[in-house]
Amino acid sequence: KAGVTQTPRYLIKTRGQQVTLSCSPISGHRSVSWYQQTPGQGLQFLFEYFSETQRNKGNFPGRFSGRQFSNSRSEMNVSTLELGDSALYLCASSHQTGVSSPLHFGNGTRLTVT
Amino acid sequence: DAKTTQPPSMDCAEGRAANLPCNHSTISGNEYVYWYRQIHSQGPQYIIHGLKNNETNEMASLIITEDRKSSTLILPHATLRDTAVYYCIVSEAGANSKLTFGKGITLSVRP
Predict the structure, then answer these.
(1) How far apart are CA A44 and CA B54, in angstroms?
(2) Which of B30, B49, B57, B96 to mutate to test the interface with A (most CBs of A within 10 A)?
């Protein structure tokens, strides 16, 4: 089985711009979660989608949003980029939500905001 | 805040067992213990998880104390490729997608 695929791998944007990141989960996985990783804050949960519905949301401003499509693929969007949004954005999928099934992570999109 | 405490770093010799400790003294009855690792420039990789009983898979063994307040991840024969940051996380089954990662423990495997 192919793993979680995230595109693009690297991205450079300017302050004030917006960006869209894409995630394709493992085939058959219906839950997709997004995490932000920075050297200062570590890995932080952004949000989770299951069957096109947002199930959980972390403590991030409304500039961070996401969606999930009927084929379980997911996108996250960050509007009005700030320098502090520079981070590794990780997507993870799991077979189900609400059970103990583990997360399978992609290798992330490295976003640099200048 | 992470509900686990791990030492910041440890090392072991290649070929030897690596025993990574984790304290989770406030764990509740319906919370699982998960272990993930992150090798530089990659996303976290799931290793193993358990509730009460010890668990073993092809990667590692997880030993959970009877009172569930601590656990140990055992890599039986560490290799250089096991050098990574290892995260111990406790989470309810219903929140398996909303994990709270701490700082983890950096394992360095030396030749």
Answers:
(1) 28
(2) B96
d(CA B101, CA B48): 15
Pairing of strands B84-92, A42-50: unpaired
Pick from A48, A59, A90, A103 the residue to mutate for testing the B interface (most B CBs within 10 Å). Answer: A103
When pLDDT is averaged across residues B11-30 and rounded to a whole number, the result is: 95
- Report the C-alpha gap between B88 and B73 in whole angstroms: 9
Among candidate residues B110, B81, B104, B111, the one with its CA nearest the CA of residue B20? B104
What confidence category does residue A6 fall into, taking pLDDT thresholds of 50, 70 and 90?
Answer: very high
Give yes or no for a contact between A76 and A63, defined as CB atoms under 8 angstroms apart.
no
Residue contact A42–B101, C-beta within 8 A = yes
Contact residues, A window 71-100, toward B, CB-based 8 Å cutoff: 90, 92, 94, 97-100
Looking at CA atoms only, how far is residue B52 from chain A in angstroms? 13
Residue A34, strand partner residues: A47, A91
CA–CA gap between residue B28 and residue A53 (Å, rounded): 28
Alpha-carbon span A11 to A32, nearest angstrom? 21
pLDDT in tens, B61-75: 999 999 999 999 999
CB A75 within 8 A of CB A66: yes
Q: By the CB < 8 Å criterion, does A66 face chain B?
A: no
Other beta carbons within 10 angstroms of residue B71's beta carbon come to 23
